[in-house]
UniProtKB/TrEMBL annotation:
Identification of the protein by name: SDR family NAD(P)-dependent oxidoreductase
Keyword Nucleotide-binding: no
This protein's UniProt keywords: Oxidoreductase
Organism: Pseudonocardia zijingensis
Keyword Oxidoreductase found: yes
Family as reported in the entry's similarity comment: Belongs to the short-chain dehydrogenases/reductases (SDR) family.
PANTHER family the UniProt entry points to: 3-OXOACYL-[ACYL-CARRIER-PROTEIN] REDUCTASE, SHORT-CHAIN DEHYDROGENASES/REDUCTASES FAMILY MEMBER
Length: 275
């Protein structure tokens, strides 16, 4: 028969416990970042919500604070190294320090090559650069600063990649696929470097979720339909459906998981949907 303390450790409230942990989520004003901040905060973590959208941040934080959650906000552009360094330094100075960081902020690169404006010839240099600055360099800024300040012996860094980073996707723009693949490589190397310090680094590769990303893209309606059809579940994901995986990767339950890329895609990687 198992020892009582072993039984205790197997209980969900211990396995998935993030209470008292300090967390930062970038891009927390909307979509997947907001869902992540919510699940961490509702389970007792102290969460700093960071975003460039001040109004979105205030709305998100006010709702969580009303529920009694410990939340703070920070307006920070992840493409700005100084802003991200300051964000993580502040989070580390709050109570018992920084334990969990989600590099979630990201932007669309426009439609993929199924649309004329998404073809190779049409790639706009300025937009390419901005997507790299946010989706790739922004992740470097976030991972580097978070790791620097995680000195408590418990570290969880999670990067939001995309299915488009692990396989070709004609529905999304070149800069997006390139950056989402780039962060996977960054995650694997950082996982190796940071393992001796007890910091686990993983990536989530979401399929298509209903959020604000890409809303302004031309032909959005058709793209959404195609994404839904590509999933075995034949629909897009709701951001709340990311909460379980986010909590798993932030919690003790993931103690033997690092350098991994975990898809959450309604079965979009299983193959062609017959319907
Ligand atoms: N929604 C999907 O289908 C999907 C699929 C795969 C991956 N992702 C990834 O998930 C992450 C979250 O996207 P989402 O779908 O929730 O989109 P979203 O647009 O709803 O939310 C993204 C948030 O990031 C913020 N943001 C944008 N640029 C920023 C910057 N430079 N610094 C700080 N904050 C910034 C935005 O203001 C916004 O609040 C992104 O990295 C995205 O690429 C989304």
């Amino acid at each position: 028969m198992a020892e009582p303390d072993t039984r205790e450790a197997s209980l969900a409230q211990h396995l998935f416990r993030v209470e008292g942990r300090g967390a930062v989520v970038t891009g927390a004003g909307s979509g997947l970042g907001l869902a992540t901040a919510r699940v961490l905060a509702r389970n007792g973590a102290r969460v700093t919500l960071a975003d460039v959208d001040e109004a979105g941040l205030q709305r998100a934080a006010a709702d969580l604070a009303e529920e009694g959650c410990a939340v703070r906000t920070a307006v920070a552009d992840v493409a700005d190294r100084g802003a991200v360094d300051a964000l993580m330094a502040d989070a580390a100075a709050w109570d018992s320090g920084l334990h969990i960081a989600f590099a979630n902020a990201g932007i669309s690169a426009g439609p993929g090559f199924v649309a004329p404006e998404g073809r190779l010839d049409a790639v706009d240099d300025e937009r390419w650069q901005r997507v790299l600055d946010v989706n790739l360099t922004g992740v470097l800024h976030t991972v580097r600063a978070a790791a620097h300040h995680m000195v408590t012996g418990y570290g969880r860094i999670v990067v939001i990649s995309s299915l488009a980073g692990i396989r070709a996707d004609p529905l999304v723009g070149y800069a997006y696929t390139a950056t989402k693949a780039g962060v996977v490589a960054l995650v694997r190397n950082a996982a190796l470097e940071l393992a001796p310090r007890g910091i686990l680094v993983n990536a989530i590769a979401p399929g298509a979720f209903v959020t604000n990303i890409g809303k302004a893209n031309p032909g959005r309606g058709r793209v959404v339909e195609e994404f839904a059809r590509a999933a075995a579940l034949n629909r897009l994901g709701d951001p709340a459906e990311l909460e379980g995986l986010a909590l798993f990767l932030a919690s003790p339950a993931s103690s033997y998981v690092t350098g991994a890329v975990l898809p959450i895609d309604g079965g979009a990687t299983t193959g062609r949907n017959p319907v």
